[in-house]
Amino acid sequence: MKTKATLLLSLLLLVLAGQTTTAQQQRYTVSGYVKDKQNGESLVGISIGKSGTTLGTVSNQYGFYSLTLPAGEHEIQFSFMGYGTYKTTVNLKKNATIDVSMEATSSQLNVVTVNGQKQERTVNTLNTSINKLDIAQMKKMPTFMGEVDVLRAIQTLPGVNTVGEGASGFNVRGGNSDENLILLDEAPVYNSTHMLGFFSVFNPDAVKSLNLIKGGFPAEYGGRTSSVLDIRMKDGNNQNFNINGGIGNIFSRLSVEGPLVKDKASFIVAARRSYIDLLMKPFVKGDMKDTKLNFYDLTAKANYKFNKNNSLFVSGYFGRDVFGFGKDVNMNWGNSTATIRWNHVFTNRLFLNLTTYYSKYDYSLRFSNESKKKTNEDSQAYDWTSNIINYGFKPSFTYYINSSNSLHFGVQGIYYTFKPGTGTSTYGDIKHVKELYDQHALESAVYIDHEYKPSKKFGIQYGGRLSAYQFVGKGTAYFYADTTPGIRKRLVSMKDYGANDLIKGYYYFEPRISARYAISDEHAVKLAYSRTTQFMHQLSNTASPTPLDIWTPSTNNIKPMVSDQYTAGYFYNAPNDAYELSAEVFYKTTDNQVDYIDNANLQLNPLIEADLLPSQGRAYGLEIYAKKDIGKTTGWVSYTLSRTERKTPGISMDEWFLNRYDRTHNLNLVLTHTFTKRTSLSANWVFASGTPGTFADNRLEFQDWDIPYNSTEKRNNYRLPAYHRLDLSMTLKGKQTKRWKGEWVFSLYNVYGRRNAYTIYFKQNDDDPTKREATRLSIIGSIIPGITYNFKF
Asked: Where would one find coiled-coil regions in this protein (predicted)?
């Protein structure tokens, strides 16, 4: 590992040394921030360059830019789709700071986002396998129950799918949902959905930008092996007060934003609350009258600009789901995050973003006999609680060497506390508590990326990440004997460790490289390779993860996952940027994925590691994406052809078998047509191959009974029927004034009432108990209408 790191550093120094042997002409740097003039939000991906040349740069994810040019007079051009072009002349005799506020052009307002998050031309970027969506695009899509949803939007992108309606999370290039790093203002979120997967936890009124990275990962990101979903919250309007909201048939939402000190400080607060349980309360009687089904969340952010070099941002999220049947069964779960971020400009070329965060995910489950209890009976109850807490620290630097070179580097540290579960059973006055030991871990990393663009045609970004992971006490470590693969391991010994004692350490070098070659201004090819590691795992042996699944760290028995991914792609942007095309192929291998012995016991099991098996995974495929941004008809088409497989010793005859999330074909068509300034119609059609499942392929007759069994012992030997669905949505805007803007959104989900199979199970025939029949379980099997009124003033 040290040899690889030394070679990488030597290569980096040689390149940088070569860049310093240029002509001795004096050079100076112009830098600053680019913001939206109307609301003060930073603009990401703005193109900044000297007019008539290829010298240029783009603003980073915080709106900061830095451009080094020879001494003398230059015309600097700032351009961004929807904002036209802004030009200014600067005479560089020393370093200069120029902050720019760009105003959206009215002629293009119908094709850009309100916050300028229109992605940079993909043909010009070094990154591969990155998709960006903005709120304006998502608002045009057909919605479920009339509500805009972040996760439903990304599921229309190539390489992204889900097991079906009601599934928690999403799957990227065949990975499990826990293999996605989901960040909200740089704090990790462990459960990204409300209402068992039907809505995301991200309030669209507070979301500023969304980046989904599926491959070619920059060295800044680590800790997951499938994808990074990086969501940034709005900073808040620092020019005027605004109130946004919506009233729907599922939930309502309200957000308030405005300046604390004009041009220097602002805030935003956004809240949502569902009320299905309130609407159905008059119709629920008897034991079910106390049924609960709701969620709520609160998102808030504030910022203050001390001076041109220092800005502070504070943001947080709190959300919870409540789900219960009468008084007897009650569940609740939720996320909490808090982020403090400081931006500091050391010099015109050196930029710092320092982030500290807190994140917690917890859940509880309660069973009782409250509704059936008689006055002379003892009460009975069972309570189960679990959570995961982490604290993070991330200073990251960007050093702009010149217009062709930039460095990104930093360090990261995360401290984890896992509380696997506490179960308390109560009978009358007697209590019995079963508690699993807390687990602790420390994850740290140092990384560096060098972005080098020697010419207009060629560019390369390469670097690496050194990751360290320590599984530490206080706690008990278990040691098992090797047994026949596929069978529960035998416990040999246990050992207690004191607080912060090292139980097991893992260390990895993760190389990353991406390269681009421009065939012309409109055509480019890209290649990428990345290695990623993951030190935590979500344990679930159900068809899809649930909010009550257990998170566990890597231990002395559970090794970290290690993934290698290779990507190659072709990219095209039309000359007028009216549309873009891309085609990518990928191949990914993953070691040490978690699998399970048959009939594994995952609930409050102190010896849970004995039921886990290491597994190999591989995924490969083709992704095609076509997008049209300009004109009355806009939208995109995405198609994925892929295969995802697993190989686990002792399972499925030690042969490769299909992953539960494998879909051979996945097609999404998203279209929006604008009839007038006030009326538009959207459609979304999705088709996907059915997911694999394990079903009996033979039967045994015993005393007039048919007993089905799997004679091949192969997992996922059949597929569910293909999934397809059509959604429609119409937006009718009311009269728009300076003080009030309103619109009605009418939606139809599952227009032709398709009963897509979530799973298939077998039961006895009602007329002939000796026979068994397959039964399709559909979460949604009918048309679901929705209506929402959105307003802003």
From this structure: none
